[in-house]
Amino acid sequence: MVLKLIGFSKHVIFSFIKTIILLILNFILHKADSGCNNSVTTSLVQFPPNEVLISLQSQVLDGHLSLKDNEDAAKDFGNIHHFPPLAVLHPKSVSDISRTIKHVFEKGSDSELKIAARGHGHSLQGQSQAHEGLVIKMESLQGHEMKIHSGEFPYVDVSGGELWINILHETLKHGLAPKSWTDYLHLTVGGTLSNAGISGQAFKHGPQINNIFQLEVVTGKGEVVTCSENRNADLFHGVLGGLGQFGIITRARISLESAPKRVKWIRVLYSDFSLFTRDQEYLISLKDTFDYIEGFVIINRTGILNSWRLSFDPKDPLQASQFNSDGKTFYCLEMAKYFNPDEVEVVNQGVDHLLSQLSYIPPTLFLSEVSYVEFLDRVHVSEKKLRAQGLWEVHHPWLNLLIPRSEIHDFAEVVFGHILKDTSNGPILIYPVNQTRWNSKTSLVTPEEDVFYLVAFLSSAVPFSTGENSLEYILNQNKRILDFCSHAQLNVKQYLPHYSTQEEWQAHFGSQWGAFVERKRAYDPLALLAPGHKIFQKAMSTFI
Ligand SMILES: Cc1cc2nc3c(=O)[nH]c(=O)nc-3n(C[C@H](O)[C@H](O)[C@H](O)COP(=O)(O)OP(=O)(O)OC[C@H]3O[C@@H](n4cnc5c(N)ncnc54)[C@H](O)[C@@H]3O)c2cc1C
Ligand SMILES: *[C@@H]1O[C@H](CO)[C@@H](O)[C@H](O)[C@H]1NC(C)=O
Ligand SMILES: *[C@@H]1O[C@H](CO)[C@@H](O)[C@H](O)[C@H]1NC(C)=O
After folding, report:
1. What distance in Å separates the CA atoms of residue 522 and residue 511, rounded to the nearest whole number?
2. Which of 151, 168, 188, 306 is most buried by a 10 A CB count?
């Protein structure tokens, strides 16, 4: 019914909020002076290779060890921390990795040479860097054959350095695909499984770490261990969400489902936060619901409803002029329903029925239809546009929080109502998940309530800016948000956590800290791995 009113056209493509931001950034950038490089100063000092490195060089490898031109390994998407390593290993085999780690491990705790696996380097705060250490470039392992197994519980075996986008394309050849995703697919398996991998499917399937049957891991002692729920389960659970602390993921067996061909992609707006969250929570509680549920916040975006209207089919003009968005806050609920062409009638009825139960502002219903790949790879479209404008490799002071349902209203009132003036620095995602179906044995730290919200402040700092779009301003704003959470004693947890002291890490892990330390002692006793998180600065023998 609603669908018919909208005059649905499959040729309509979303005009993303991200595109709007891009235009704003573009506008600001054009006004700014150009011509100088704004990157944070990088130390390019050549360090003398230490003793371990010299002996490492005599190892026989399938790949190679590089001691020069390793500046890239000191970069990441956050573009805030830059710590150059002494060497980069480009492994061609798992034994390259195990041999190298074993060698460093056997040199003992005086070697001081830390080791970081680097996936696609899309960390935000130097997590894949190793200051004066050794970086293992996991993408060199790519290209190892992906093995797809169909049957009742289909899966694919992939390298830890494989990009999710490649896995999508390969599995689709067999009509299959992974179940749980991230919003952006140019990330490696090892990189997202070390965190969680959360997107709009996580309310249904859990995060990516919930959808793994088996891993092959090289521990901090250089041992190659295969692990799963039934075999070396402690290492398996430890590594999932384990921030790279217990081992390097060299292979993963990922659960698959049959892949849909098409996606109905829907956005609606709310001005009332309570109605917005009520509808989101209602949708995730249903058995028969959308396949993807997310949402985002739009604060004081001048003319948002006009640009909203432009993205509609011009044959079906939106009566949005009755709204004046300036100075106001809106909440966009974003939903997707997967389907195959032969099911279109049933799917339309199902979608109509779900939408008829929601309380959004009626003329803001925006519906589109795209292929499954177009839907999943949507952020890559924005990436290409931003890259073309030189706006991709800017500073990204992101902040990701997991907020218990009982506290989301207090949080929203202060943060969206008072701390943030607008959302011109980047999207703010907000959506709930019910973690009763999530595996609680992994290393991932979440709030204790069943239902919590992911709130992601995905800010970009504008180069050369000194005002409200500058890195300093945004970092300060993030700090104000975190300070508010701690003063109001909200039981918030950081996702993609970043702390600089062990006390803060201990507080982050809370009751899980003891188990985390025990696993470190068991699998990486010299604390060689993933030093960029700054969780363990010393070998476990000296750790109290
Ligand atoms: C544009 C963009 C969108 C994003 N969207 C989402 C999202 O929707 N949902 C979400 O959950 N996250 C999202 N992220 C965050 C992303 O999942 C993490 O930053 C992830 O770590 C990046 O993967 P990477 O391959 O670049 O890892 P890297 O940055 O290279 O590494 C991240 C960490 O994992 C460790 N590591 C890397 N490879 C391995 C391995 N094989 N074994 C063990 N440890 C390893 C590193 O040492 C480091 O500590 C997004 C990031 C970006 C830049
Ligand atoms: C979360 O999921 C569980 C199990 O499906 C369910 O019993 C519970 O009611 C859900 N909680 C909410 C608040 O939706
Ligand atoms: C909204 O933005 C406009 C222009 O960007 C600004 O003049 C106005 O003060 C802002 N309103 C609020 C409530 O912050």
Report:
1. 19
2. 188
The model's pTM? 0.90
Joined together, the tokens standing for residue 384 give: 């290409």
Q: Which residues pair with 294 in a beta bridge?
A: 334
pLDDT of the residue at 266 = 95
What is the SS3 assignment for 486?
A: helix
Maximum pairwise Cα distance, the chain: 73
Neighbouring-strand partners of residue 256: 178
Query: What are the structural domains of the chain?
Result: 1-45 (no CATH), 141-259 (3.30.465.10), 262-495 (3.40.462.10)
Ligand 3, from 298, 324, 326, 418: best to mutate by most atoms within 8 Å of Cβ?
A: 326
Ligand 2 pocket test: pick from 277, 285, 289 the residue with the most ligand atoms within 8 Å of its Cβ: 285
Nearest to 530 by CA among 38, 28, 83: 83
Return the structure tokens found at 49.
Answer: 């290779």
Q: What is the pLDDT of residues 50-77, one digit of tens each?
A: 788 888 999 999 999 999 989 999 999 9
Whose C-alpha lies nearest to ligand 3, atom 9?
A: 327
> Are 449 and 404 within 8 A, CB to CB?
yes
The answer to whether residues 330 and 298 touch, using CB atoms and an 8 Å cutoff, is yes
* Token pair listed for 68: 């020069």
pLDDT of residue 52: 86
Which residue stretches of 39-112 are H helix?
51-57, 94-106
Ligand 1 atom nearest 247 alpha carbon: 43
Which parts of 339-498 fold into alpha helices (H)?
Answer: 344-356, 372-376, 378-388, 408-414, 471-487
**Could you tell me the distance, in angstroms and rounded to a whole number, from the CA of residue 324 to the centre of ligand 3?**
13
- Kindly give the distance from the C-alpha atom of residue 224 to the centroid of ligand 2, in angstroms, as a whole number: 39
| C-alpha to C-alpha distance for 202 and 182, rounded to whole angstroms | 9
* Position 499 pLDDT exceeds 60: yes
pLDDT tens digits for 305-336? 555 544 444 334 344 444 556 678 999 999 99
Residue 451 Cα: closest atom of ligand 2: 13
Under the banding of pLDDT at 50, 70 and 90, the label for residue 541 is low
Closest CA to 292 of 199, 171, 399: 199
Q: Band of the pLDDT at 111, cuts 50, 70, 90? A: low
The gap from C-alpha 521 to its chain's centroid, in whole angstroms, comes to 28
Q: At what angle do helices 513-523 and 502-509 cross, to 10 degrees?
A: 120
List the structure tokens of 288. 């028969």
Nearest 5 degrees, angle CA 170-CA 369-CA 434? Answer: 75
Residue 394 has pLDDT above 70, yes or no: yes
Candidates 120, 191, 180; CA nearest to 380 is 120
Question: Quick one: tokens of 452?
Answer: 């919590």
Its sign, for the CA torsion 40, 41, 45, 50, is negative
The confidence score (pLDDT) of residue 304 equals 57
